[in-house]
Amino acid sequence: MKRSIIVITLTALLIFTAIASAQETGTAQPKNSRIGLGFNIGAQKPYCDVLHTGAGLAGEFMMRYLLSNYFDISLALGYGTLNDGFSYNTFVTDLFAGDIKANIHLSKPGNTNPYLFVGAGFTNSSYTRNKWWAIGSPEFEDKRVTAGAFIYGAGVEFMLTPQVALNTFMDYRFSTGDALDGAELGKYKDGYLNARAGITYYLSPRSGKAKSDRDDLLALQQGQLTGSEQSGSDGMDMFEAKLDKMEAGDAELSMEQYVRLKSRVDELNQLISIKETELDELRSTLDFKNQRITDLESTLASTETESGSGLSGDFSYNYEEALRAFYARDYRRAASIFSNLLTTYPTHALASNCQYWIGESMFGLKDYEQASAAFQAIFNFDNTTKKDDATLMLGRCFYALNDKSNAREYFQSVIDKYPGSEYIDKARQWLRRL
Fold it and tell me: In which domain, by residue range, is 368 found?
């Protein structure tokens, strides 16, 4: 009996050494395998016609097939002994057992995985009398008897690495026969209690944490984590952080996946560089246009003055100064100069422009109520080119004030009332945000 257990243990160690070597050299392991191989050892105690029983050693080989995160099937073939304890030692039954179990996991895969199981199997046993007064019958002695078994129990799996787990479980097995103790007495069938622990090796990583990291990386690679390209450096920081984490020791990422992810990082870096160049060009274009507007409005102010409008030449200088203050984001000074110009020159051709820039200055100061009042005043001017501008900005004021109903009305008015306006596309963009 002891020799058999030693042989089983040595065989198990040889198998696990071979598997570990194959994994180390990268040769025999299939990708995304659902299979786990294990060896468990422990003790089993009979419950039968014998009043006093003890625990005997037992071991088994096991193969587990993962059907999902919460369900798997396991097959086991093992050998052990049953006896009535060292103090009595009246009999020993050596027992071969095979079983199939359905394991139901009680939580999402992680470092600790509790589970319940039920199953069925067979036993093949041989009874040996050690004392002449043993309860068993001589007719069962050294005769192998096969019977069925029904199993239920519970266990806990502790993940030591993404592919190696410590497995502990306890189960009770009802035998369909009554010869485990060599005696067919009473009305109850024999049975025995198992308590075992061992190592399970999965051909692919099973750790829930490792799987989550891999899924996030693959989702990033396939574009499922949206916003990374639009958000620029934030998306890249998250992507590279996960990649660095996998490089540091996640064995489940294959070389092929690693190369694809590295390639994706390079593509995103190149895309960010292109977008930054485009953004710089747009800023330059905007600055040029703003300067052109300032120059044109200053020229118009000078022309109005020189053409005999009867207005002071100070308007042109102050108007240009106010625009410079606005584009320098000195909104209070800009609003003050435009207000003084509007008070001093209420009939000037650019008076409505002064009124509009007062609204823009208030908007820059985030005083949206004052800004909306300034933009509303634009419609009091008969000859002005700022009505579509003011309508769009009124929509933005009410949007900032969280008055979405009025905001929608003004954005729609830009489209309906000013079909030739350059702000129609912007109005549609704002409408999509509502």
Answer: 306-433
